[in-house]
Structure formats: structure tokens, C-alpha cells
Amino acid sequence: MTDEHRAKSANGEHSPQGLQSSQSAEVLVVGAGPVGLALAGDLAWRGHSVILLEKSDGSIFQPKMDLVGIRTMEFCRKWGIVADVEATAYDREYPQDNVYLTTLKGHELGRQPMPSMNAELAPPESPQKRERCPQNFFDPVLQKFARSQAGLVTYYQTELIEFVQSSDAVSSTVKDMKTGEMRTVVTPYLVACDGGKSAVRESLGIAMKGRGLLTYTTNVIFKCANFNALHDKAPGYRYMFVGPTGTWATIVAINGRDHWRMSIIGNAQEKTNYTHDELKALAHRALGAPFEMEILSVLPWQRAELVAESYGQGRVFLCGDACHLTSPTGGLGMNTGIGDAVDLSWKLGAVLSGYAGPALLNSYFVERQPIAKRITQFSTGNLETLKKVPSSAKIEEEGPEGDRVRLAVGEALCEGLKREWFSLNMHLGNRYTNSPINVYDEVESAEDQAIEFNDAVHYRPSSRVGARAPHVWLSDNTSTLDWLGRDFVLFCFASSTPRIEDVVRTAKHWKIPLQVREIHHAGAKALYEKAFVLIRPDGHVAWRGDDGPSSEQAVQDLWLTVCGRTHVKESASNRSSISGVHS
Ligand SMILES: Cc1cc2nc3c(=O)[nH]c(=O)nc-3n(C[C@H](O)[C@H](O)[C@H](O)COP(=O)(O)OP(=O)(O)OC[C@H]3O[C@@H](n4cnc5c(N)ncnc54)[C@H](O)[C@@H]3O)c2cc1C
What is the CA radius of gyration of the chain? Predict the structure, then answer.
């Protein structure tokens, strides 16, 4: 493993003697993968105290994610870390084409040209664009962001062993893996970002449902400095290889330079355990000739489509892969987890600040589980398109019959996978259509909602309640999104009214953080449709109207709803051992 491949954290940087029992915080976050780092960082950015635990030393054995989606980049903009993402070591001039081939020395079946990161422009719908930034580059950016927040302490090589929750706190037993010492940490909330094998989820007895195992896949990262000089095809980000039995492997440019990730796609029936020699032979098959390569790491993993039946219990929540597992065909696993993190973070923060009620926390599952179902089903669909190419038995045959097969396969892949490469609506079009904390101004049919949810490509910016508030460049060169963040924001596209003043006055009286922003911009006014739009701290629309609610009571009801101040029964005391022993 090279230095670039290894993302090393500063172990124990925050406390050479490790976590102390006397230490406390408002939230304990378990797992410092990308989602735990984002959640802990966002909570601390909102001014809350957080302890973040990670059982490993922070090294990344093998980078998994490499697409940082456009919505995640909007969060990075809010956190002030876009420049850090852009400064990572991926070659920003390297083209991002998806290329379908028999072998790199054989036939090119089709190609979806995609610009390099330097050439790609942000689309009109966002101030940001997606980025190629694999996990061994992205995690250190998130670590730096998280560590720069005053209220956060991080402990590596520290494992959550068990937790007990009561009606007002969670008491967690954690182990310092260097010394073996056990400590008890008491926090009002615990969030498990402990990955797909989440022991916290298991201890809570929360089931995962969905299509389950999709494939046994093997990823191998190899180093080859001159790989693209070994063949005659134009460089691509992703090469996808189709043989007589269908699509069997991909090779992606994991740093745009000399590191490559080959995935042997596999199936759900055979669990394979390849030797290095077998993996080299498969790489040689993909190229179409033997070549010198250095295997850096091998990761057999199980691709699955699964979503948790609940996102927590009492004061314990699940976030990221701990509550949804998806095929990476779509690049949505981590991006969805970071969406969960921002949703949960502002809600926990609002409750901890004292202005919101427990119903706000219940809305986390109601809002985010449909998104997880949406992205997992979409991603499995992409996998099926990739694997179910038209009959390819004669794909390597020279002559007219082989040409016909190659044309058909190339067309099927080029057309079928467009929705994966251009899935803007999967990233920006996640709208909370049935949330108990939104105040809806229109009745929507289930059919309309299904059409919007099933369309991966066409994002229609809108201020409809539940939607991500849309981006517009304002005259001072800021985005409307730059005005959103820690507090509620009321966008006013018209002069205030007595009813709107009532909304503002009530927020102040109830100590709900609200900023009022008058916007004099014709384009923004047209896009936002209504004179007044109330946006939540996660950037989603809570309410909109051409005037405020019609009575004093209706104004109060508005704030009671969006702050989740309806009465919810706390769950009973519950002890859980994540090593599987319930006591
Ligand atoms: C090949 C591949 C490619 C992918 N590409 C993309 C992509 O391009 N874009 C995308 O969005 N997603 C992608 N994904 C998915 C993405 O990698 C995951 O969704 C993401 O890593 C999940 O992050 P997480 O923080 O929830 O979990 P993890 O990354 O699994 O992190 C969980 C952490 O919790 C720690 N932990 C576990 N138990 C404990 C404990 N008891 N105490 C302390 N620490 C604990 C673990 O050590 C680990 O560090 C890809 C996945 C694969 C396999």
C-alpha cells in the first residue's frame, strides 16, 4: 500500500491518554467513515459538542467511494471545504468517459464521453458540480473539517462495546484498543455510523429488508504507471468489459494517474476467493495481453440492496450504510449517507438547543427511508442494465455476425446506462413528500409523486414543500444556497405583511433561530413561485405562501409543526450489548 493509497489520521491527536470516563458531550457518533465524519463535523459546525469514535486507526485499506455527488458538494460549500476537495491528488485533467469494450486491445463497443473535472462546468441548477474524489482523498478532507470544529473530539482505535439507554441519556462502554481499558461515556444521544455490518443496528434488533445479496464481487487495486499506453483506445475513467457471457469486469481510474481498480462483478451464487495470479490473469484478459502490474489490495465484498426497517430506537439513531446498503452502480451510497447525516444533524441540534420537540427526531426516518429505497432500487436497476446486455455469445467473433452483436451490445449499454451517468434528479430531486414536520400547500397525487421519484435524470428546480430549496445566482454573485445553513431562513420576494411579521415575531418569542432575507431578483422570484418561502436548516422547504398563515393560532401551528413540538412518548429503558449479548 502506498502513502497516497493510505489515508492516515492523526491517531489520538485530541487526547494522548485516550477517552476518559469523565468526558461527555451532547452526541456520541460511532464510526469515522465518511458519514460519521460528516455527521460529527456538521453537528460541531452547528455549535454542538460531539465525541467521535473509530475502532480502526483511520487508515483506509481500500478506497470504496470515488464520486462525491453534487448535493454533497453543496454541503461541502456550506462547510467551506470545496477548495480542499478540489486540491486532492486526482488528476483533474483526466477524462471521465465511460467506455464499453470486449478488451482494451480489442473492440470498443461504445463510449459515453464525459469531461475531466477541470473541463466540467457546474450545471445551471447548482453552484457546485460533482467531483471525482476517492475515499482515500475525501476522508482526510472530512477529517480536517471535523477536527477544525471546536466542539468535536475524535478517538481512533476506540471501539463501542455496548450501550444502555434510559429516558434521558445513553451510557456507552467503549474500549481503548491500545491499552484494553474500558470507559463509560454518557451522552444524551448516540448515532451509529458503524457501516453495513452495524453492530448497533443488530443489537437494537432492527431488520434490513430488500432484495438482499446481489453479487459476490472482488475489487483489486493495482498500480500500473503506463496502463493507457498499453492499448490504442482513448483514455476513460471507467472501462467496462463484455465477454461471451455478458459484462464481467470494470476497471476504473482511481486517481487519474497510476492507480486502477478492477472489479470482478461476479454473481449471487458463487463466492469466489481469487489468488493474486488469478486476478492478474483476469486483468490481462481485460487488456487483451499480459502486462506488468503491482497488486496493492484485494477486497472481496458483497453487493446488496437492503434498507433498515427503522432508523433507530429511543435516543439511538442509525445513519449511512448502517441503515442502507446499495449497489455502487450509481455512486449514491455515501452521498445518501451524507444526506442522512445533514437531516439528522440539524434535528438533533434543534432538540439539543431546546427549541424543538421529539417529533422532529421521528421525522428523520419518515423523510430519509423513502430516499434510501429510491436510490437502492435505482442502483440495482443500473446493475441489471449493465449485466443483462443482449446476447453476447458471438461478441468476440470477427465478421458481420460479430459486428452485429457488438453494435447491439454497445447501443444497449450506451442508452441504458445514460441514466446512471446523468442522474441529477437522484442527487438534487430528493423531496420529502410525506413529512410530519412540513406544512404542505397542495394536495399531490401518488402518481405524480411516483413519476418524480422514478425519474433519475430530469431535475425540476422547485420550491414545492419538502424539496431542496433551488439555487439561483443572485446579483451579488452569491447563490441562494449560500444564505441557508445553521438557522431557518425566510426568503421574502415581496414586502412583508402583518401575518409574516407574526411568523417572525413568534419565532423570536419562542427562541427559534430564524433569519429573514429579502430577495429582489426576478429570476429567483419566478423560480420560487411564492412570495414567502420558509427553508429549514438542511436547505429543504418547510412551508411557502403568498401571505403568512391566516390567524395567530395558525402561525403557532406552523412553528409547532416544523419544530416537531407535538408530544411523543419516550421509549422505555433499553440495554443493548453490541457484542450480541443482551442483558
Ligand atoms: C466499490 C464501491 C464503490 C463505491 N462508490 C461509491 C461512490 O462513488 N459514491 C458513493 O456515494 N458511494 C459509493 N460507495 C458506497 C460507499 O463507499 C459507502 O456508502 C460509504 O463508505 C458508507 O460510509 P459509512 O461512513 O456509512 O460506513 P463505513 O465507510 O463502512 O464506515 C463505518 C466505520 O465505522 C467503524 N466502526 C464500526 N463499528 C464500530 C465500533 N463498534 N466502534 C467504533 N467504530 C466502529 C468502522 O471501522 C468504519 O470505519 C461505493 C462502495 C463500493 C463497495
Answer: 25
pTM (2 decimals)? 0.94
Q: Is the CB of 337 under 6 A from ligand 1?
A: yes
Q: Which residue lies with its CA nearest to atom 14 of ligand 1?
A: 65
Q: Mind giving me the DSSP string for 407-475? A: HHHHHHHHHHTHHHHT-HHHHH----SS-TT---SS---HHHHHHHHH-SS-------TTSBPPP-B-T
Nearest CA to ligand 1 atom 5: 65
Please classify residue 72 by burial: count the beta carbons closer than 10 Å to its beta carbon, then call 0-12 exposed, 13-18 middle and 19+ buried: buried
552 Cβ contact partners less than 8 Å away, ≥ 6 residues apart: 502
Give 79 Cα–ligand 1 centroid separation in angstroms.
21
526-577 pLDDT, tens digit per residue, is 999 999 999 999 999 999 999 999 999 999 999 999 999 974 333 333 444 4
Task: Output the CA 341–ligand 1 centroid distance in Å.
Answer: 13
State how far the Cα of 499 lies from the Cα of 529, in Å rounded to an integer: 19
Check if 159 has its Cβ closer than 6 Å to any atom of ligand 1. yes
End-to-end CA distance of the chain: 42
Beta carbon of 332 within 6 Å of any ligand 1 atom: yes
For the purposes of burial, counting CB atoms within 10 Å of the CB of 339, is it exposed (0-12), middle (13-18) or buried (19 or more)?
buried
How many alpha carbons fall within 13 Å on the CB side of residue 545? Answer: 18
Q: Which ligand 1 atom lies nearest to the CA of residue 36?
A: 25
Q: Report yes or no: 215 and 198 within 8 Å, Cβ to Cβ.
A: no
